[in-house]
Amino acid sequence: TSGVLFPDNFYLKIGTGQDLRIYHNSTSGSNIWNTVGHLTIQNTANGQDIRFFSDDGAGGNAEYFRVDGGSVATVFSKPISLSDNVKAYFGTSTDLEIYHDGSNSYIKDTGTGVLNIQGSTVLNIGGTNGEVGIQYTENAGVSLRHNNVVKLSTTSTGVTVTGSAGISIQ
């Protein structure tokens, strides 16, 4: 009445060829193996999720990600860490890739079209120390900075230069 008990080190084998196996031992943990075709995990409950939990590093459990059946999305609850040279691809033809090669970081648009970088009202491009090198402000203009100080700005009538401007003709 309380279920089926399989002691440690015994396999639950399913299929004529024993193609699906579930195994647990007391030292290395639990495993599910599938040796033929796809392994499908499916939740058919309307609007419900498939949730993945693991130890939180402090003796408790935390959700790390879920396949959200209500919003039809995968939701990550913890940071995602990709090793060097592992690319995150976007688009049906993998037209956009983001990765780090161990020394440098890349955002590549390898397909057709335009790579757009947009912010809600302000877009800053700068270093990790917080200094801004280029700032775009919606409906206001673009500024170029040196050492976080604006040196050139676009205006509705042209440009404004702060400091001296040097022109070199080759």
Radius of gyration, whole Å: 27 Å
- Helix and strand run: EEEEEEEEEEEEEE
Instruction: Give the termini distance in whole angstroms.
Output: 91 Å
Count of distinct strands: 14
Structural class: mainly beta
Unreliable stretches: none
Task: Name the strands of the widest sheet in spatial order.
Answer: 10-11-12-13-14
Give the overall shape.
Answer: elongated
Mean pLDDT: 92
Proportion of beta-strand residues: 35-45%
Largest beta sheet, briefly?
5 strands, antiparallel
Portion in helices: under 10%
Contiguous helical run count: 0
Question: What brief labels describe this structure?
Answer:
mainly beta, five-stranded antiparallel β-sheet, 170 residues, three-stranded antiparallel β-sheet, elongated
Q: What does the secondary structure layout of this molecule look like, with pairings?
A:
Elements: E1 10-14, E2 20-25, E3 29-34, E4 50-55, E5 61-68, E6 73-76, E7 88-90, E8 96-100, E9 105-109, E10 122-126, E11 132-137, E12 141-146, E13 149-155, E14 158-161
Antiparallel strand pairs: 1-2, 2-3, 4-5, 5-6, 7-8, 8-9, 10-11, 11-12, 12-13, 13-14
